[in-house]
Amino acid sequence: MRSQLLCTFSNKKEYESTLIQVSNNHDILFDKIYILQNTENPHYLYLTYNVEGYDFDFLPKTISVHRKKHTNTLYTINALNELVMEKTGGKKDERYELDWDEYYNNIILTNDDGINIISTKLYKIINL
Question: What is the SS3 string spanning the chain?
Answer without folding.
Answer: CCEEEEEEEEECCCHHHHHHHHHHHCCEHHHEEEEEEECCCCCEEEEEEEEECCCCCCCCCEEEEEEEHHHCEEECHHHHHHHHHHHCCCCCCCCCCCCHHHHCCEEEEEECCEEEEEEEEEEEEEEC
